[in-house]
């Protein structure tokens, strides 16, 4: 009976460890994606170029 308790405790621990690993992996993916988005939007020359191109394209069409 003690063996069954030990076995179920090990399985519960392994299950918990797997859930934690998965959660950490997803969190890391999300944080990396956020960092990439921030880096892309933090590039002022790229953002300024895009907004200027849109504005001039709209004026040329009028």
Structure, described:
- It is a single chain.
- The protein has 2 helices and no strands.
- With 62 residues, the protein is an all-alpha fold.
- Helices cover 94% and strands 0% of the residues.
- The radius of gyration is 26 Å and the shape is rod-shaped.
Alpha-beta classification: mainly alpha
Quantity of strands, as a count: 0
Mean pLDDT: 81
* Main sheet makeup: none
Task: Note the topology.
Blueprint: H1 2-42, H2 44-60
Descriptive keywords:
62 residues; mainly alpha; rod-shaped
Summarize the structure.
The protein is built from two helices and no strands. It has 62 residues and is mainly alpha-helical.
